[in-house]
Amino acid sequence: MILPPNIPKSAIDKYIPIKLISESSNGLIIAVVPKNLVKPTPTSLLALRIPRSKDEREAFLGQIEFLLSIKTRRITRVIDYDLRGNWYVTSFCHGRDLQHLKENFFQDGFPPFLICNIFDEVMAAQGTELEPKGICHTNLKGSNIILTPTEKEEFPIVRIVHLHGVVTWDEQAVVKQMIGLLRYLTNSASRIPEKYRIDKKGDKLEYVIKDEDTNSLRIGDDFYSFIANYDLEGNTSWEDLKSRWMNEATALMKELYDSERLLDVMEIIIEPKVTDDEFREAVEDGGMDIIDDRDL
Question: Quick one: which H or E segment has residue 243?
Answer without folding.
Answer: helix 238-255
